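FIELD: query
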Amino acid sequence: MSSTIEVQRICQYCGNEFTARTTVTQYCSHKCSQRAYKAKARGIKVEASKQETKRIRTQPMEVLKVREFLSVQQVSKLIGCSRQTVYELINSGKLHAVNLKEKKTIVRRSDIDRLFDQPFVRTPKKEPQPVSEFYTAKEIEEKYFVKYGRLNNIIKENDIPKTVHNGKLLVSKPHIDRYFKQTRNDVSSITDWYTVEEIQHKYSISRDQIYGRVYDNNIPKQRVGKYVKISKRHFDELFEIGV
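FIELD: result
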């Protein structure tokens, strides 16, 4: 006896709504049912392949764990560090090793285990050095051609030490100098650029005047093919403060 009920369901393969005659029907058609079955079978095969790859990849590590003597390269793989770190452990006396011949250093597995029996020595935290040199906000504006609002954002975003003395904002000189040196040399964060021709058209100045401002004020630039691109924000800031 066939079912007489009709319910609306969502096909679990194509996502379309369809009318089903049972409350457990999963697919809208035989085609979707077959495709879902093949996709599931394919997924099982892919997962099996991944597990096999994982087993093969970890197999060499299992071999290393049972070896009594290891090379520096094998030690680095076993404990998950670089060869240079292993040599540093050996040279510092923390890890015992022997040279069987030139360029052949061998480490016993038991000595590696003994390495982890040593107590952990916590490196003392360096106390921050007190700041002794400061800029006034006006000095920073004049030196780096940046407006006060922009300067205030730089201080906040980079946690640059500051204080107030006699009603004047004083900002750490070494921190500010380091910030502008890094940002003016690093162009990876700059997304907006002018070509020389675009600057000429916008500000009605010559190429020599453009390059003079770029070099005098260390404005970020880069060469893209045959064109020189100049940081839009840095160049515009010069004109905003009247340079």
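FIELD: remark
Residues 134-183 form one domain.
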